[in-house]
């Protein structure tokens, strides 16, 4: 389906090997291939452009131009640069969930996988970090979503806040906070309402909930297959409520993972986890190496 970057560059450089050292034009041709590969991997255009600009400089060094394997050298430079952007300054940070009960606010659009991810993350915290977790659904418009979280909670053995019909999102958030303190929970997770599009009502509600819970972590759940849209959603949420990290779902799909690069480059927010399926254990910590490999094809 896709031609990977090594093959693409191989084609460009094969043509050139007979001509001795690489010229600037040769490097430019190689960089065009890099750009196409990024765009095919669903990296947004501005991000692909600035990425290519920064690798061009490194690829014009004599180590590459005089190398007998310039294609491989360029692939390595691109790979290293991808890791640099994807990883940001350092290692992926751990979630800030000391000082119990630590609130985690889960935000995102409807259908992004927010409720599923809330349960997956609760399970992970319970299994791996031995945390006592309480989950609460704040989706007052969709009783089915509240039920869904309760059912998932039962499946994974994590408590959910009892549903009290007629309460507002902020009332539920207050109740969750109180219950988490009284019940001796380490973490409480608030699964906020999603909507099909970002609107003022959604943002006002999330802000009000945020002000009550004062979350240690605000995780945005976005569909990793939506490319540039995912980045726009992240920019919007970060501007309005402030996010501390991102979870990219549906990374088990056909997508090439370019949204991860755009996300990191544009928002500067760390990708904390990736969703790799519908099952409750299909959540993994973000691994820049893996995503870089996928983007390169
Ligand atoms: P919400 O409206 O954002 O709360 O979305 P849901 O959590 O209800 O998820 C919507 C659908 O996406 C469900 O069928 C989930 O099983 C599915 N889903 C969520 N995360 C993933 C993922 O990482 N991979 C796949 N393949 N499906 C997912």
From TrEMBL:
<keyword id="KW-0342">GTP-binding</keyword>
<comment type="similarity">
    <text>Belongs to the GTP-binding SRP family. SRP54 subfamily.</text>
</comment>
<comment type="subunit">
    <text>Part of the signal recognition particle protein translocation system, which is composed of SRP and FtsY. SRP is a ribonucleoprotein composed of Ffh and a 4.5S RNA molecule.</text>
</comment>
<keyword id="KW-0687">Ribonucleoprotein</keyword>
<comment type="function">
    <text>Involved in targeting and insertion of nascent membrane proteins into the cytoplasmic membrane. Binds to the hydrophobic signal sequence of the ribosome-nascent chain (RNC) as it emerges from the ribosomes. The SRP-RNC complex is then targeted to the cytoplasmic membrane where it interacts with the SRP receptor FtsY. Interaction with FtsY leads to the transfer of the RNC complex to the Sec translocase for insertion into the membrane, the hydrolysis of GTP by both Ffh and FtsY, and the dissociation of the SRP-FtsY complex into the individual components.</text>
</comment>
<feature type="domain" description="SRP54-type proteins GTP-binding">
    <location>
        <begin position="270"/>
        <end position="283"/>
    </location>
</feature>
<feature type="binding site">
    <location>
        <begin position="191"/>
        <end position="195"/>
    </location>
    <ligand>
        <name>GTP</name>
    </ligand>
</feature>
<protein>
    <recommendedName>
        <fullName>Signal recognition particle protein</fullName>
        <ecNumber>3.6.5.4</ecNumber>
    </recommendedName>
</protein>
<feature type="binding site">
    <location>
        <begin position="249"/>
        <end position="252"/>
    </location>
    <ligand>
        <name>GTP</name>
    </ligand>
</feature>
<feature type="binding site">
    <location>
        <begin position="108"/>
        <end position="115"/>
    </location>
    <ligand>
        <name>GTP</name>
    </ligand>
</feature>
<keyword id="KW-0733">Signal recognition particle</keyword>
<keyword id="KW-0547">Nucleotide-binding</keyword>
<keyword id="KW-0378">Hydrolase</keyword>
<keyword id="KW-0963">Cytoplasm</keyword>
<keyword id="KW-0694">RNA-binding</keyword>
């Amino acid at each position: 389906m896709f031609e990977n970057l090594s093959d693409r560059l191989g084609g460009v450089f094969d043509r050139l090997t007979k001509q001795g050292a690489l010229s600037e034009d040769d490097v430019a041709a190689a960089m065009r291939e890099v750009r196409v590969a990024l765009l095919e991997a669903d990296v947004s255009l501005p991000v692909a452009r600035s990425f290519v600009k920064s690798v061009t400089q490194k690829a014009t060094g004599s180590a590459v131009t005089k190398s007998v394997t310039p294609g491989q050298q360029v692939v390595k430079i691109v790979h290293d640069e991808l890791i640099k952007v994807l990883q940001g300054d350092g290692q992926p940070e751990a979630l800030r969930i000391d000082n119990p009960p630590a609130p985690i606010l889960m935000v995102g659009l409807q259908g992004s996988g927010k409720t599923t991810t809330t349960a997956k993350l609760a399970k992970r915290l319970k299994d791996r970090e031995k945390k006592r977790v309480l989950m609460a659904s704040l989706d007052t418009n969709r009783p089915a979503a509240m039920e869904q979280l309760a059912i998932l909670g039962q499946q994974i053995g994590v408590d959910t806040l009892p549903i009290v019909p007629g309460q507002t999102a902020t009332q539920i958030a207050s109740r969750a906070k109180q219950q988490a303190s009284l019940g001796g929970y380490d973490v409480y997770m608030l699964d906020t309402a999603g909507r099909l599009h970002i609107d003022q009502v959604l943002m006002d509600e999330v802000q009000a909930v945020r002000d009550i819970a004062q979350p240690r972590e605000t995780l945005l759940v976005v569909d990793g297959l939506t490319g540039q849209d995912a980045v726009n959603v992240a920019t919007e949420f970060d501007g309005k409520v402030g996010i501390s990290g991102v979870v990219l779902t549906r990374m088990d799909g056909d997508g090439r993972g370019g949204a991860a690069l755009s996300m990191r480059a544009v928002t500067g927010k760390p990708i904390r986890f990736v969703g790799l399926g519908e099952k409750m254990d299909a959540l993994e910590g973000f691994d820049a190496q893996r995503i870089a490999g996928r983007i390169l094809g």
